[in-house]
Amino acid sequence: MSESVRTTDHKKIQKWAESRGGVPAKIKDTGKDDADGVLRIHFPKNSDNDDKFEEISWEDFFENFDDNKLDFLYQDKKADGEQSTFHKFVNRE
């Protein structure tokens, strides 16, 4: 059985993403101005839609993450034991 974990720990989030080839990104044209946009961890090696993502710095990513009071929900492994890239951003409780 796979288990999800919830965190706001910047180092833990960055380590999880980078160990899977993920980079901080936002979806283009989803914000009110250049600083805004829907956050994502983008996995370029697993994606055919690179043109819809804009890679951003970890500093900008976490500033947006904290400003919007988000939590990071993620899985380490899939039910079959394989490494997982499942994640999503949820509102902090």
Report the portion of residues in β strands: 25-35%
Q: What's the overall geometry?
A: globular
Quaternary status: single chain
Largest sheet: 3 strands, antiparallel
Q: What's the β-strand tally? A: 6
How many alpha or pi helices? 2
Side-by-side strand order of the widest sheet: 1-5-6
Biased composition (Basic and acidic residues): 1-18
Protein name: 1,4-alpha-glucan branching enzyme
Region (Disordered): 1-31
Structure report:
With 93 residues, this protein is of the alpha+beta class. It has one domain. It is built from two helices and six strands; from the N terminus they run βαβββαββ. The chain has helices spanning 10-18, 58-67; strands at residues 4-7, 23-27, 38-42, 53-55, 70-75, 87-91. The protein has a three-stranded antiparallel β-sheet with strand order 1-5-6. Strands 3-2-4 form a three-stranded antiparallel β-sheet. It is globular and about 40 Å long. Residues 1-18 have a biased composition (Basic and acidic residues). This is 1,4-alpha-glucan branching enzyme. Residues 1-31 are annotated as: Disordered. It comes from Mucilaginibacter terrenus.
